[in-house]
Each structure stands twice: as structure tokens, then as C-alpha cells.
Specification:
Helix content: 40-55%
Order of helices and strands: HHH
Number of strands: 0
Number of helices: 3
Structural class: mainly alpha
Largest sheet: none
Length: about 70
């Protein structure tokens, strides 16, 4: 009985597999937050995030983008 070995192929790409997040998608996600749902582990209510307007949206996008990179 012989053993057969299967080699694995590595795929190298210069492009990320997940596209960079866009500011418009972050803004849409914030807009679609359910106001009346209890906060998650972060304890930040959706009402507070939505009340922050463009300023909070911009800061959240910057955070998401830096995590993505």
C-alpha cells in the first residue's frame, strides 16, 4: 500500500478579496439602524448614533476603514 500526497496550491493576489468599505455603505448602514432595538455589547443605542449625524457617520467610517486596512 502506497501513500499518495496531494499538494496544495497557494493563490497570491495583489487585490484584496473584500473590497474597501465605502462611506456611502457606512452611511446607509447607520441610516438603517433600528431605533427601538436594545444596544448590543457596546451599549451604544442606535438613537445616539443616528443623532450624531454626518459627524458621527464620518468618524465611524474612518474607524471601519482603518480596521479594514
Amino acid at each position: 500500500m502506497g501513500f499518495s500526497y496531494v499538494s496544495q496550491t497557494e493563490i497570491h493576489t495583489a487585490e484584496p478579496l473584500v473590497p474597501e468599505p465605502s462611506a456611502s455603505k457606512a452611511e446607509m448602514a447607520i441610516k438603517n439602524l433600528n431605533r427601538y432595538k436594545s444596544p448590543c455589547i457596546d451599549k451604544i443605542p442606535a438613537e445616539l448614533i443616528k443623532a450624531g449625524g454626518r459627524m458621527i457617520c464620518s468618524q465611524i467610517y474612518k474607524l471601519i476603514n482603518s480596521i479594514w486596512k
